[in-house]
Amino acid sequence: MTPATYRGGAFVSAARRLGLEIVVGLDTPPGLASSRSPEVLALDFKAPEEAVQRIVSFAREHPLQAVLSVDDSAVELAALASAALGLPCNAPDAAEAARDKYLMRQRMAAGGVPCPVFRHFPLTADPAAIAHTVSYPCVLKPLRLSGSRGVIRANTPEEFVTAFYRLKRIVLAEGFDEGSTGFLVEDFIPGFEVALEGLLTAGQLQVLALFDKPDPLDGPFFEETIYVTPSRLPAAVQEAIRSCVERAAASIGLREGPAHAELRVNEQGPWMLEIAGRSIGGLCSTILEFGAGMCLEELILRHALGRELPSLERRPEAAGVMMIPIPQAGMLKGVSGIEEARQVPLITGVEITAPLNNPLVPLPEGASYLGFIFARGESPAAVEEALRSAHRCLRFDIRRELPVLNAALTPPAPPTPSERAHPHWG
């Protein structure tokens, strides 16, 4: 895991409930390893070969039964380490394809999985030349970022050029090399969006939850807000979604462990947007319980260890979560209305995760939320309304009138010569 992940605490707690002895492989810059506790293995995620060697060396003295990435950051590293140790895992090239959107699209298309028409371009390309060769509306996507970062819709050639330079700045700020990095341009797929949480065993997909996303996600950015389960879609449509995800997993080689998929559904059926070889992000997993109160993380750990799984049936009531969106850039100075929101019927929790006196960066540059609202009830519609009502209770004091907050909020870097020459730069 990385130090900033939301997911670490849930997995560590689940491991302790199962009586497991664990070591946390933490993304740690070189030179800081000595400051960590004995239960933490310092790994440099940017040097996977060295990280695998450290894991293998550690396993000689402390044999490992499983290696698990808690989020996107180390999916490939976990697969490489598992392969080196001879542990059950997805093939490293499948883990790579689940992280790289271009590889994912190529394999899905080759496997006949319904997905958007896509084209790949280098980041050094001339956006003005590309803009007149693509269909509109379209969506520009970076290859490696997650959580909708850098994903921008364009409806016209002019919007395409503007979106390109914004995406380019985001990608370069993440440390990617301009000369070796590309991006995707995809046809925009209209429709209702859903998310599927599943578990793969020898390539067979067991659906753990299917979430409706009732807020329209039509751009120009694609910030997710409300997830509600069970889905209100007809049973036949839900089965088509399950089948589509299973085919998508097979096309890129995912066969074992958690899978989180995003799809659009329209009159032509389900369309695959993305599939990841990890569980749902943020704190969203807290609304999922199986059997006699087993959490999602415990289920994943049991599966990774080859243990018998109890019932995978979810609790019967509807459940939902709202990822509280960041409305504007600035410094978070205060939050009010939390107790009022917690008193809304069906609300089971309100967690503000953004720290005070810290900068907020909305999409497409940002990578986090203000917090999460959780609800349970008799019907998905009631849960959705409870989440919206609780959100209306919250008031955020975000100050705009500030000096430089951080690199993400500073004015754009001076244009490159090629950008400066283009009339639509910035």
TrEMBL record:
Keywords: ATP-binding, Ligase, Nucleotide-binding
GO molecular function: ATP binding; ligase activity; metal ion binding
Matches recorded under Gene3D superfamilies: 3.40.50.20, ATP-grasp fold, B domain
Region (Disordered) location: 407-426
UniProt cross-references to InterPro entries, sorted A to Z: ATP-dep_AA_Ligase, ATP-grasp, BL00235/CARNS1_N, LAL_C2
Coiled coil: none
Protein name as annotated: Phosphoribosylglycinamide synthetase
Source species of the chain: Thermogemmatispora tikiterensis
